[in-house]
Design a protein that fits this description.
Strand content of chain A: 15-25%
Number of domains of chain B: 1
Structural class of chain B: alpha/beta
Radius of gyration of chain A: 21 Å
CATH topology of the largest domain in chain A: Rossmann fold
Number of domains of chain A: 2
Strand content of chain B: 15-25%
Largest sheet of chain A: 8 strands, mixed
Mean pLDDT of chain A: 97
Strand order of the largest sheet of chain B: 2-1-3-4-8-7-10-9
Order of helices and strands of chain B: HHEHEHEHHEEEHEHEHEHEH
Helix content of chain A: 25-40%
Oligomer: heterodimer
Shape of chain B: globular
Number of helices of chain A: 13
CATH architecture of the largest domain in chain A: 3-Layer(aba) Sandwich
Number of strands of chain A: 16
Chain lengths: 378, 275
């Protein structure tokens, strides 16, 4: 097949199908609805099922149920619905059930502006659900990346037996680019969950190494263990023993720490000789790249850094880069959320300047261009 | 007989259970085990889910694939679990606050979809686990820790709600009517489509003692006194039925389309009839 115009949301669905998606439960919400619509049309064709639930709370609950039954499951939403999902995001983390949630960020707080882009869910992704928990999230900036990052989201959700949030924004979700879906290279093979022990009696799904995720065989196949959101033992039964409690919470974090380097992904350009680096993700990074290229034409030594794995934040690389430059400019469509991660990574190594985008519109290349020019003229 | 059943269907190493002395949930669990035996349930092909609360702790004792979900959401988990797995029986056990307050929306939509799930609600008319707060089924004027001057709201009629929402099997029993309960559970499990059995149980510790029931037996006696079999109720006026509860099978439709069939049919259509 040759290249055709594909929308970001559409590419997410193509990616999910490539990764073996069999179940989608969701609730209509702008600007993510195309994902649900497409799944409702195409899932039956691959032996899967779509269901429109009564709200986002039940949508993610149904996804967890379908995943427990053995199927790759996904839901898609935006800020208001993502807030409703937080309860069961915690459940999936605690019970170690692989699911993928697409959050297409729009302007908030509350109903905000339904059709306006934003990046103000960045911290909600990380800390939205209660309790100590790790979080994994990938943020594409192009239509092709919507496709490949959706596959990567499924890959890692299976690897770590947990939630992965595919973090889009309204611009990335709705823009169209020409891509040849059938000929994208280096596609990840999403692993199967098995094989599982043939000894089904007394099977302990949560008996794994201290830095590994649990592997839950599909329910209703003869493995009669318990799944719960309570602190639990190796068989899934509630416990309140302090040692076992500490071990579980630590393992939930360890299993992410163990693969953090492997999971890290970023797009770094023009940093070799840079005096200043622009850090941004998602659609804003498109503006940044344009601005950086324009500035380079004028011989301004400016670099470009874009986290793709936005959680865990690529702190190590940002720390290294900060030691080589005088300034970092962070551009994001919020009052400043990712900038806190940059600050945490950089310490006193260099100056940090924040360019906020809080008007419900994409930060323009001009705005980034101007901010960089001001920073270097100081 | 029950000893045989407990060995067969319970995780004996999980006992003793956490329910209070005199609690009615054990009667319901016993009836469920008898119903399992009657329908010859396959332990490896049955998934039992629950929400949060006293009733929901039942799943921890049942030797099946079990999922103790979040408060009110069990039916939503069950819907996702069942949709592509018509090889498994799915049973959901909930409490009244669980299924009807926080989970009320999920409850009516599960009824409406007619997916093949059996929902059993143990209705003790109170939030027991948190110490006796009023629930959507606490009768008007009754006392609880959050209605110290009497409950001002009317109690939900669980079964009428289920019928109104389109459930295709709706039945009610009380802890007094243990053999009826067994029969209803068995029929509900056999029913093709969404089945719902409301089961009144007594909570002597957090409901009875604040509402002039001196002991569990007096609560069971009260359940017996206010219960009217469905057939008898057909010949009674609404005045006569004031303050009564109708027990037995209230709705038993067989012809309705079940959701899994629709899903399977669509998949088959796209596969040109080949599995």
């Amino acid at each position: 097949m040759s290249a055709k115009l594909v929308q970001g949301n559409e590419a997410v669905v193509y990616g999910a199908f490539n990764a073996g998606l069999k179940f989608f439960a969701g609730y209509p919400i702008t600007p993510s609805t195309e994902i649900a619509e497409m799944c409702s049309r195409d899932l039956p064709k691959v032996g899967g099922a779509f269901i429109q639930m009564e709200d986002e709370i039940s949508s993610i609950a149904a996804c967890i149920g379908a995943s427990l039954a053995g199927f790759r499951s996904m839901s898609a939403t935006s800020g208001p619905g993502f807030s409703l999902m937080q309860e069961n995001i915690g459940y999936a983390i605690m019970a170690e059930v692989p699911i993928v949630i697409v959050d297409v960020q729009r302007m908030g707080p509350s109903t905000g502006i339904a059709t306006a882009p934003s990046q103000s869910d960045y911290m909600q992704v990380r800390w939205g659900t209660h309790g100590d928990h790790p979080m994994v999230s990938f943020a594409p900036f192009s239509v092709e990346e919507c496709f490949t990052e959706a596959i990567r989201a499924f890959y890692w959700s299976e690897k770590i037996s947990s939630v992965v949030v595919l973090l889009l924004d309204e611009v990335v979700a709705h823009m169209r680019e020409g891509i040849d879906i059938d000929n994208v290279e280096n596609i990840l093979e999403v692993p199967d969950r098995g094989p599982f022990s043939e000894e089904k009696e007394g099977f302990r799904p949560y008996k794994v190494d201290r830095d590994k995720g649990a592997k839950l065989p599909p329910l209703g196949t003869g493995y009669r263990f318990n799944v719960t959101g309570l602190v639990h033992d190796e068989m899934g039964f509630p416990v309140e023993d302090p040692e076992k409690t500490g071990d579980l919470i630590r393992r939930l974090h360890n299993k992410i720490d163990a693969v953090e380097d492997e999971m890290a992904s970023y797009d770094e350009r023009y940093t070799e000789d840079a005096d200043v680096i622009v850090i941004s993700y998602g659609s804003v990074a498109r503006s940044s790249l344009r601005a950086v290229r324009e500035l380079r034409k004028n011989n301004v030594k400016v670099g470009f850094f874009r986290p793709i794995t936005v959680w865990p934040f690529p702190s190590k690389r940002v720390r290294e880069l900060s030691k080589k430059v005088k300034n970092i400019v962070v551009a994001e469509m919020s009052m400043g959320q990712m900038v806190h991660e940059v600050e945490r990574s950089v310490g006193d190594s260099c100056q940090i300047t924040l360019l906020q985008g809080i008007k419900g519109e994409l930060i323009t290349p001009d705005a980034i261009h101007n901010t960089v020019s001001e920073v270097i003229s100081k | 007989m029950i000893g045989e059943l407990t060995n067969k269907y319970l995780r004996m190493d999980r006992l003793p259970h956490m329910w209070c002395p005199g609690c009615g949930h054990g009667i319901a669990l016993g009836a469920l085990l008898r119903a399992f035996d009657r329908v010859k349930i396959d332990k490896d092909k049955t998934v039992i889910l629950s929400g949060i609360g006293c009733a929901s702790r039942a799943v921890g004792y049942l030797d099946f694939s079990t999922v103790h979900t979040t408060h009110g959401r069990a039916l939503a988990f069950a819907t996702g679990l069942r949709l592509l797995r018509d090889d498994v029986k799915v049973i959901v056990i909930m409490g009244d606050g669980d299924a009807l307050a926080i989970g009320g929306n999920h409850f009516i939509h599960a009824c409406r979809r007619n997916i093949d799930i059996t929902a059993i609600v143990l209705n003790n008319q109170i939030y027991g686990m948190t110490g006796g707060q009023s629930s959507p089924t606490t009768p008007q004027s009754r006392l609880s820790t959050t209605t110290p001057y009497g409950n001002f709201a009317r109690a939900f009629d669980f079964c009428n709600l289920a019928i109104g929402a389109g459930a295709t099997y709706v039945a009610r029993a009380t802890a007094y009517h243990a053999s009826l309960m067994t029969e209803l559970y068995a029929n509900a499990i056999k029913h093709h489509g969404f089945s719902f059995v409301e089961t009144f149980t007594q909570c002597p510790v957090n409901y009875g003692r604040r509402n002039k029931f001196p002991d569990p037996a007096s609560m069971l006696q009260y359940m017996k006194d206010i219960s009217v079999p469905f057939k008898v109720a057909q010949n009674m006026g609404s005045d006569e039925l004031q303050g009564k509860i109708v027990i037995g099978e209230l709705i038993k439709e067989k012809e309705d389309v079940e959701l899994n069939e629709v899903v399977r049919e669509r998949i088959m259509k796209f596969r040109g009839g080949a599995q």
